[in-house]
Amino acid sequence: MKMALGLAQRGLGSTWPNPSVGCIIVDQNGHIIGRGYTGFGGRPHGEIMALKQAGRAAKGATAYVTLEPCAHHGETPSCAERLVKAEISRVVVATIDPDERTSGKGMEILKKAAVQVDLGVCQTEAKAINQGFFKRITANRPFVTLKVATSLDGMIATSSGHSKWITGPQSRRRGHLLRASHDAILVGVGTVLADNPSLDCRLAGLENRSPVRIILDSHLRTPDDCIVVNTAKKIPTWIITGQGNDQKKARLEAQSVQIICCDMNQEGQIDLEKMMTILAVKGITRILSEGGAQVNASLIRASLVDRLYWFRSTAIIGGDGLPALSSIGLTELQKKPNFSLIRTGRTGNDIWQEYMI
Q1: Do the Cβ atoms of 214 and 185 come closer than 8 Å?
Q2: CA-CA distance, 302 to 287, in Å (whole number)?
Q3: Can 273 be counted among the known catalytic residues?
Q4: CA 224 to CA 230: how far, in whole Å?
Q5: pLDDT in tens, 40-84
Q6: Is 33 helix (H, G, I), strand (E, B) or coil?
Q7: Residues 216, 145: Cα–Cα separation, whole Å
Q8: Which listed residue (47, 68, 81, 290) is catalytic?
């Protein structure tokens, strides 16, 4: 099962709107005869890839699957039915699929066909891998990771706005690895105006794993000639904005940018909760936010951050620098958001820490 979980991990960021599922098939002599994980765009499913490798040897074998085999019919028969047809004798499942089209039904199909089913092996790890898919199904929003790179004293830029580079090359490479494992990357228009970023994945061998680029832009200030617009035909680029500015919208759409209109809140900014619902409907399960201080604070204020990656260099900028977070409106210490430290490590001279809410 741990091998199957490792396979599932590989698909993260490329399988949305589907979960990333790993499958290992072991014959009666204990030999691995098939392995697979969900393909780009969610097809084929991991079980189908593993069964294809195993071929006729799958008869009487055991399949280890990180998520309950699907029960619903799409373009092909369900994975549960395909496992039965291949005459698999035992299926070990890490966790139940929360999607109502499958939830428990895949297990029933297997059991009715007299397939031995074992549930719950490495369940915690399996849920962690597909927490984005689970969040989309159960909460109607994507799982949001906030990534911050700061000086030792929590600054993201000097007083003049200079920010390249606070952390070292090893931290930036790990940041690109995070991009490759997420469906979408989110920034505010302020970041686009200040840095003109490409927001892609530039790790060797993972160039095709660049996430969808989402720009928060209430008043459509994104320049027609910025990098994300000029490369929108290559990497999907979505701009979340309000009503109006029809001519500007038409120009951007002509350059393959997708314009998504969203309601505003009382402050005249994008309503982030409604935006998350829209993105969930569009199939996004995992968002990596690399926004500036305003976007970071807005997401935390709206209780929309599930995980925090914080990269800290050993440099100090001082109190006149730009902090990683603008005001979150906290007046009572008892109401402060609390994160739990999950993992920590080093990237070159920097320190990175992973927190969960």
Answers
A1: yes
A2: 15
A3: no
A4: 8
A5: 988 899 999 999 999 999 999 999 999 999 998 766 679 999 999
A6: strand
A7: 16
A8: 47
